[in-house]
Structure formats: C-alpha cells, structure tokens
Prior knowledge:
By secondary structure, this protein is an alpha/beta fold.
Amino acid sequence: xxxxxxxxxFSRYEQKKLGYGAxxxxxxxxxxxxxxxKPYFGPLPPLNLRLSMGVGLRMLxxxxxxxxxxxxxASVEPHTSTTSxxxxxxGEPNVEMNTSAPSNKSEKTxxxxxxxxxxxxxxxxxxxxxxxxxxxxxxxxxxSEIGMKLVTKPICSTAEPRSDFCEMNGDIRVHGKSSTIFxxxxxxxxxxxxxxxxxxxxxxxxxxxxxxSFTIKPSLMVVNKIPQCxxxxxxxxxxxxxxxxxxxxxxxxxxxxxPLFSTSREFKGEVKFLITNKKAFWIAKFREILDKLSNYExxxxxxxxxxHCFPRIIIGLKRIGNEELSLNPSKTPNGYSMKDFRxxxxxxxxxxxxxxxKIKEGGNSKKPRLLIISRRNSRAFMNKGKIYTxxxxxxxNVLIAEADNKSNLSSFAQTVNSCDVMMGVHGAGLTNMVxxxxxxxxxxxxxxxxxxxxxxxxxxxSVDMNVRYLEYRIKEEESSLIQQYPDEIRxxxxxxxxxxxxxxxxxxDRQNVMLNVIRFRPTLVKKQSSFCMSRSCHFFLFFxxxxxxx
Length: 550
C-alpha cells in the first residue's frame, strides 16, 4: 500500500534523486559514527620503549635490533671528536652501551650516549687517535637485554671513615688541567657538583693539604655546554693521588697500594690509572705492582689539556673500614682479603717461598733465618752488634738490612721472603711483613708510650696476613730518652696534653733503643722453638740456651 502511495506522490526521476540522497546521507552518518567512536575500536597501540632526553632532544627510541636512533623535534649528529674509532661507520651515531649489572640486581643497565649538534654546524675533522681495549659492546648486547636505563648521576660514597670515592658510568670526560670531570647528561637537576680528594686518609688535614681536589660536574649534552673528546678510551679509569704521606713505606701500602688493589683488581688489568700529585720515584718503586694491576701506561692527569673520555670512572680509592694494612672480605669489593693481597704480591714479585721452614726430628737441619730491620734517624737499635751475636749463638742465620726509598723494592722483597723471622723497632720498615712467607714470625720491639700504636699498626694486621706476632716492650732503661728527657719520661701525661705533634716529636722522632739482650733472648728462643716439631728439638734448644747464657 505504501509503495503505491509513494509512486503516485513522486515521479520516477524524483524517486531516483531521493534514493541517491538517502544513500549519501547514510554514508555521511556511517563516517561520522566511525570517526566519533574510532578510539574505542580495535586493539591497543603498541608500546614504544622511550627515554625522555629533554633540552631539545625529546625522545630517544630504539626501533629495531640495528640500534638506529630516531629523535623527534631535534637534529642529532654523530658523537664526534678529534679522535675516531676506525670500526665506526661515518654518519652513524656513536652509541656506547654497558650491559654489565651489579650482582645484587637482576635487571640489565644500558648507558646510551648521544650528543646533539646544531644542523648548521659542520662536524669537526676526524683525527687518528689512541683507542684502548678493542671491545664492541653492541655485539655483546642480547636482544632480550634491551632494558633501557639512562645513568646520569655519579654514585658517591662518603660514609667510609678513611676514604671518599665516586663511581660513574656513561659518557665521562676528564679535563686534567682544571681538575674537572664532566658527566654528559640529558638532564641536570639543581646543578649539583661534587668535590673529592682522591687519597685514602680522610679527615687528616696534614695529609690532604698535599692532595689535589677534583670537581665532578654533570653537564648537558649540547654544543658549547661540555668539552669535546680529544682522546677516547674504551677501558675504565681510576683516579688517585700520590700526595699525602706517600714516600713513607707504611703509608704507601695502607693508603695507596692495598686500597688500589681492592679497587682495581676486579678489572683484571683492563683499567687505566690517572695519577694526580705525581711522584716519579714512587711509580718507579712500585712498578711491578702497578704493571700487574693495569695493562696500560699510567697517565699523569695534572696539567692535561686534552679531554680524555671514558665509559666508566672511579675517583678515589675504596678503603673500607678503619684498620691499617687490612682488607675485610665481608666489606671489600668482590670479597678480597689480605690472603688474596699477599698471593698477588707473591705473584707480582715472583716470590718463591709460600711457607716458613719447619724443622722435624731426623729431617731438615736448616737453620731459621732472621732479618733485623735497621733504622738510622730514630727508633734505631743502638747495639745491633750484640743483637747479631746473640742471634747467631742461638742458631739463627742472621741478616741486617735497612728498608728505605733508595732500596730496590723487588730485591728487598726477595730478601724478606727468604727469612723466617723478622724483627725491628716500631716503624715503617715492619710493613715489609707483607713479603714474609706464611707462618713466619714478626717480632716488634715497642718503644716507650707506643704500645697502642704498635698493636694497631702491625700487631692486629699480622693476624689477617697469617704471620705469627710477638712484641717486646722495652723498659725505661732501654730507651735513649731516659738520659735526655728524664722528667718527660716519668710524666708522659704532660707530654700528651701538648697534643699529637709534641708526642710524635718526643716518642717517635727522638727515641732510640738500647736492647737488653739478656732480657730479650727468651723471645728469640721461643720463636726458634716454634719451628721445631719434636720434643727432642725443644730440649736441645733450651739446653743450648742455658749453656751459652748461664
């Protein structure tokens, strides 16, 4: 019925026009419907892994395994310096990644370094330079490990009682002349900077006044905000000072050598040392140790005009704890102990003996060897001849040697390692116990008022070195001070009230020792008997002792 009414009301031509109009309106309605409700249709958009770059570099996106970089709203040129890597292709960004992660973390960390340049600024000319440690970290990166995390802040530790140190990963640039370390960063918060003196005797103003200070400065990765690299290094760097008390044998080891071992050993030689407050004689003295810890030439960073760039850097040495000549394996990096250090020392100097001699009944008749450490200026033995004669009568092979900076340390280490007993007055020379074989004996002669210092400096460290320790405390009549300063000797509290420098001047710098050999000889007899394993050996020694010294 409706079709008839519709046909009578409109002509055939008008019916066609009306049909076409209805079709067009239907299309318009359909398009409008799709446009309005399109966001609610279909799957969610794919997640792109992005890093906010800021300061003109809005987004850094990894698009495919080739690691090509795309940046929105910014023009990014290759990271260019006057020293180039021959393995890099021209026109590609210099992207350096470190996929090593701390043992206590499950996630991987990747550092990406990108430097923006103005589109109108041409790339500086490339020159051939020195590149260390030919490693391509991109090839070592697994596709499943591309968890991105941009590291832009140094990690500094100021909690240790003996040393402050900072550690950084990423794009690090060192300008030696200004003692400044730049950390290239995409964002800088609050313009925070750090200053550190890379010497492991924190709080000692006398030592630190001879140590250069370094400034750590996060800087923007844009032109004219950070100096350009002139030398690229592919291995990490460690900055430390040879100022402070270096030149004193005790401080050489406790302030520098042992902390340097603890800090650098994990790199297995693939690390470069940057030294401030350089002392040429010190480097020559410890050449064997330095060469064992690093495969690269030492760089005197002071006054360097070149900008040296590294993927990782440690400023200062990691000296954990307050002890001297010690490593606590529960606290030190990688759990290093003094046994590890002594094994390293034996390897560095090719020391032959691992253990002191053991005399068995009917077996080895070799005599134990005694080394007497001699001193010249203070805390010296005033009767070395009598001590030598007594020790010879007791059956020791006796050596007298003086350890100073003029001695060849490698040769002296061989001498110490050949001995079973080492004795001397409290002083830096006793530090050479690091060269003694296992189960050897250290006898420390303790001057007046130095009991606490002697125990702290050498008595306690000997335990971790597996060196048997004995101390002999002199009496007033065995000290040279009894003739020169009788009043001070009888009233030591009055000296202590004057402060450390007055105490050091009197008891350390002015005191010598006239050893009472009769009182001292039981000490040597006791230590010689420790090398005998049988009762008959002990009986013979004591019979011999009372025969010679009735």
